[in-house]
Amino acid sequence: MEQDTYELVKKHIKTILNIDLEYYKDQQMRRRLDSWLVRCGASSWDEYFKKVRSDSNEQLKLRNYLTINVSSFFRDIERWKYLRENILPRLLKEAITSRQGGGLRIWSAGCSVGPEPFTLAIILDEIAPNKHHYILATDLDRGALEKARQGGPFTAEDIQNVTPPQRAAYFVAGGPPFFVQEKLIKRIDFREQNLISDPFEKDFDLIVCRNVVIYFTTETKDLLYKKFYDALRVGGVLFVGATEIIPRPQDLGLATQGVSFYVRTS
Questions:
Q1: CA atoms within 13 A on the CB side of 88
Q2: Tens of pLDDT along 180-234?
Q3: Which CATH number fits domain 77-264: 3.90.190.20, 3.90.1030.10, 3.40.50.1820, 3.40.50.150?
C-alpha cells in the first residue's frame, strides 16, 4: 500500500470507527489492511469504504479485525505462577490494612474475549475467596467484549492450561466448546475503552496489559506506560507480556520485579 493511499485509509477509519491508526506501527498495519481488502473482495478502498459507510455490520467486521485478539487462559503459565506466588500475596497483605474489605482493585487492559480477566478471577477465588475484589476488563473490540460477557465459547486450546479441578469448578460441564460459569462472569466489569484517548481509573493494585502495546509506536508505548503508572497506587504492579520490556523503567517511577512485572515505587 502506497503512503498516500494509507493516509486516506487512516482518515476514513478515524472518521467511521474513531480508531486512530497514527498510534500503530505503519508497516504492520499496512500489511493487515492489504490482507483485509483482498479478503473482502473489493477492487479498491474507495469501493470498500462506500460499503462500510452504509453497512453497520461491515463496520463491526472491520473494527473487530483491526483490534487484534489473541488470548488464552493462563497464557505463559510460568508468569501466572509467579504472579500467584510472589506478587499477589504482598498485594493482598497490603490491601488488608489499606482498603475496606481487603479486596484488590485489578484492571485487565486489552482483555480481548476474556481469558485474562477470567484467569485473574479464578486465581483470586482460589487464594482469597472471602474478599470482594474489583476486576475491570476493557477492550476496544465490541465483538470481543460481547463474547467475554457470554463467557465463551472457548476451544480446547484456549483452556489447555486450566487444570481439571479448575475446569470442574469454573466451567460449565461439557464441551468443546467451553463456557465459564455465570458466577465467574459476574465478578468482572467488562467495558469498551480506547486506551489511547479514554481516561483511566485510578488506585489499582494490579494492571494486566499483556501483548497489547507491542502493536503501537514507540511514542504511543511511552504514553501508555505513563498512563498506567498514574493509574497504579504506590506499590501497585504492572504485568506485561513475556516479550515486552519497558526501557529505563526508573524514569517512570517503576522498578522491575521478575520478568514481566513492574512495581510503582513513588
A1: 22
A2: 999 999 999 999 999 999 999 999 999 999 988 888 888 999 999 999 999 999 9
A3: 3.40.50.150
